[in-house]
Amino acid sequence: MTSLHIAIVAPLVLAFLIPLLAKYVRKIHTGWFVLILPVLLFVYFFRMIGMTSHGGTLKATLEWIPSFGINFTAYVDGLGLLFALLITGIGSLVVLYSIYYLSKEKEQLGPFYVYLLMFMGAMLGVVLVDNVIVLYLFWELTSISSFLLIGYWHKREKSRYGAAKSMLITIFGGLSLLGGFILLYIITGSFSIREMISQVDAISASGFFLPALVLILIGAFTKSAQFPFYIWLPDAMEAPTPVSAYLHSATMVKAGIYLVARFTPVFAFSGEWFWIVSLTGIVTLFWGSFNAVKQTDLKAILAYSTVSQLGMIMSMLGVGSAALHFQHFHYYLVAVIAAIFHLINHATFKGSLFMAVGIIDHETGTRDIRRLGGLMTIMPITFTISLIGAFSMAGLPPFNGFLSKEMFFTSMLRITDFNLFSADTWSFLFPVLAWTGSVFTFIYSMVLLFQTFGGKYQPEKLEKKAHEAPLGMLISPIILVSLAVIFFFFPNILSYTIIEPAAASIMPGLLDGDEKFKVHISIWHGFSPELFMTIGVAVLGILAYRTLGKWKKVYGLFPDKLTLNNLYDRSLYGLEKGSNKATRTYMTGFLRDYLVYIFVFFIIAVGGTLVLTGGFSYSVKGTAPIGVYELVLSAVMIAATFGTVFARSRLTAIIALGVIGYTLALFFVIFRAPDLALTQLIIETISVALFLLCFYHLPKLSFKPKTKTFRITNALVSIGVGAVVTLLALASNSQRSLESISSYFIENSYKLAGGRNIVNVVLVDFRGFDTLFEITVLVIAALGIYGMIRLRMEKGGEEH
Amino acid sequence: MNKQQTNDVILQTVTKVACFIILLFSFHLFFAGHNNPGGGFIAGLMTSSSFVLLLLAYDLKTVKNILPINFIYVAATGLFISVCTGIGSFVFGAQFLSHAFGYFHLPLLGKTELATAVLFDTGVYLVVVGVTMTIIQTIGERE
C-alpha cells in the first residue's frame, strides 16, 4: 500500500470518523475537520505536477483479487492528475463554502460530510485507477453517493424524485459501462487500461469493437448528462448548493468526460467514435443552451448551462480524434487541448456561479429570477463574482472562458476541412451549431446576471431582507473567479504543467519518445474568423437579450408532451403499469391456469425436443406378444378411464377410479408382480375409502352434481400431454441401449442377502436406503393429517 | 365409525374370528417376506385392516380400550428401529444399512435363518401400522 493508495481511500476512511466527530464535537462545525483532508490531498497531488510535466507516470499495484486479474492499480498520468487536482481543489473550496452555507444547528451535518467524503474518495478512485473493474466500482460509488447527496433533504418530495431519477439513469449507464468493460476484457484478456491501449489493433479487429464502444459511451454520456440522458441533471438541483457546485458542475458530470478522454486511445481511430462523440456533444451543447434560456430558476439555468458546456467539451474530444489520422496532427489537436482547457475553465466559473447562486438563495430566500432584481448595490461582492463567472461562461474577455471558446471555434472551423468518414458533407453543422449554441449561452449568461442583479429591487417579493453574505461564504467563489481572471492573463501557467501532460495521455500514439506537444495559448491571435464569430455572438446575444420578451414565445411552440422529461416519466409509469398488468394477466390466482402453463411448457419442451432432435423412433423388437388377458384388461381400464372423466356425479368417478386401481392390480398379477398386486389392492381400497370420506364431507351448498364444463383448451392440453408421454415412452422403449442390471439382483439375491423374494430383498437390503425415507414420508404424512385435523378442532374452526 | 346404535351381532361375532385370521395372515406375510411374496409393507397394511375391521364392528372407544396404543408412537418406534438397523452396521465397521444374515440352530425351531433385514422390515411394518391407524383414527374422531 503506497501513499497513492492511501490518498485515494483517505476520504473513505475519514468518512468513518465523521459521525463520531459530528456527534461528540458539537461546538465546532464538522466541516472544519473535513476541510483538512482535501487541502492535504491537493498539496499532495500538486507536488506530482513536476513528475507528470516531464512525461513521468506513477503506477502502484495493490493486489485485490489477483486470480481474476482484478487489482487496485493506482495510476497517475497527466489526465488523472488534472482530475485529481480538480477534485481535491474544488473539493476544498466546496467544503469551506459548505461550512458557512449549512447551519450547524439546523442541518444533519454528519450524513452530509460522510456522503461528500464518500463521493470525493470515489471520484479520486475513478480518475486514478488503471483497472477497469475497480474503476467501475468507484464509478458506481459516485452514483450512489450522488444519489444520497441529491436526496439529502429527504423530506422533500422533489429531492426524492430527483435522486431516484439520477440514480436510475446513471446506474443504467454504469451497468452498460460494465458490459463494455467485460467485452474489452474478452478481447484483450486484461482489465488494465494500459494493457488495452497496447492492444488497440486486436480491439479494432474484434467483432466486439462496436458493441464495446457503444456501451462505454452510453456509460459516459449518462454520467456526463449528454443528450438525451441529460434530464437527470436539472432535477438533481434539489441537492444543497455546495453539492450542486461540486458534483453537478465540477466533478461527477466530468467523470464521463474523463472516461471518453481515457478511452480515446482505444477507440478514437474509428469513424463511429468520431461521429457519436462529436455529434452528441454538439447537439447537447445546442440543446442545453437553448433550454437554459427559458428557465426561471437560477439553479435550473446553471444546470442546463452545465449540460451545454459538457456537450461542448465532449464535442471537442470527439473532434480531436481527427488528429489521429494525419501527419500534421497539430491542426486538429487544438480541439483536445481546448477540451482540457475548457474543462478547467468550466470548473472555475461554474463552481463560482453555483456558489454565488447559493449565496443569493441563502440571503434572499429565493432562486426565482422573476422575484429577484436590483441586488447589484446590495450584494456588490456577489455581483462581482457572478459578473466574472457569467462573462467567462459567455466567452467574453478578459476571462478564461474567452480563450477556450476561441479555441473551441478554431477546432470547429478546422473540422470542416476533415475529409474522412464522409465528414466533409456534414461537417458544416459543427460551426453552425457551435455558433448558435454560443449565442444562446451568451443570452442565458446575461439573463442570469442582469435579471438577478439588474432592474429593480423588489423587497416585497423576498422572504428575507437581502444583504451581503458573510466573508467565509465568499472566500471560495472569490478564489475561483480570481483563477478565472488569472488563467486569462497567464494561460500558459497551465500549458506545460497540466494541459500538455493531459493531452499526452489522451493522445499517446502521436508522440515519439521524448517528444512533447507544443501547447501555447495566446490571448491575441490576430483578426481571425474566431474573433469575428465571438463578436457576432456578442452582438446577436445582446440584441436577443434585449428582445427576449418578444421571442420567448418560441418556447411555447414546443409541446410539453414531447419533452424528454415527459417521455421519461411516462415510460417509467408505463413500465410500472405494464409490468403490473402483465403480471396480473398470467398470475390469475387460479391453480388451473398455472397447471395449464406447466403442461403447455412440458408439451413444448419435451415434445419440441423430440421433434427437433428427431428422437422419436419405433421398433417392436424385443416386445412381448399381447395376450387375451391384457387386451381385456386394457379395454376395462380404458372404459373405466372414460367413466372417470365423463362421470356426471362424483360417486361414479370415485368408483370408476377404483375400477382402474383394481384393474391395475390385476395387471400386476398378469405381469407376475405379486407383491405389487397385494399392495396395490390394499392401497386402492384405502384410498377409495378416503375418497368416499371426502365425498361425504363435501359442503352441502356447493353440492350440485352437474356435467363438467368442457373446455377445449383443457382437452387439447391433456391430449397433448398424453400424446407426448406416449411418444416418449415408445421412443425410449425402442431405443434401449444398455443391458438391464436386474440380472445382478436375480443372481445375488439369495447368495448375498439370504432371501428369495427379490423384490423384498431389493427393498430392505440392496436399496434399503430408499425404503427408509419412504417410511419417513409416510410418518410425515400421518403427522401432517393428524396435525391438520387436530389443530383445526382445537381452534374450534369451521367444522362441518 | 363412531358409536353405533344398531345391534350388529353377526358382524361382531364374525369380526371376533376374522380379526385373528387376518392378523395371523399378516404375520405370515411378514415372516414370509424374505423368500415369498409379502414383507413389512403388506403385512403392516393387513394388520391395520384387521384393526379397521374392529373399528367397523365396534366403536372407536371400544377399540381404544382393547388396543390402548397411541399409534403415532408405533410409527415413531418403527422409524427408530429402521434407523437403528442402519446405524448398527457402523458398529461392525460396515457402511450404513449393510445387512447380514446367518443360519442358527435355535431350540424349538431348528435350523433358522436370521437376518438383520428382518429387523429393518419390522421397522417398516410398525411404521405402516402406525401411519395407517393414525390417519384412520384421526379422520374417524373428527366429526
UniProtKB/TrEMBL annotation, chain B:
Keywords: Antiport, Cell membrane, Hydrogen ion transport, Ion transport, Membrane, Sodium, Sodium transport, Transmembrane, Transmembrane helix, Transport. Residues 10-134 form the Na+/H+ antiporter MnhB subunit-related protein domain. Coiled coil: none annotated. The chain crosses the membrane at residues 9-32, 38-58, 70-94, 114-136. It is found in: Cell membrane. GO terms for molecular function: antiporter activity; monoatomic cation transmembrane transporter activity. One of its GO terms (biological process) is sodium ion transport. It is a multi-pass membrane protein. The keyword Transmembrane applies. Pfam families: MnhB. GO terms for cellular component: plasma membrane. InterPro entries: CPA3_antiporter_subunitB (IPR050622), CPA3_sub_B (IPR005281), MnhB (IPR007182). This is Na(+)/H(+) antiporter subunit B. It comes from Bacillus glycinifermentans.
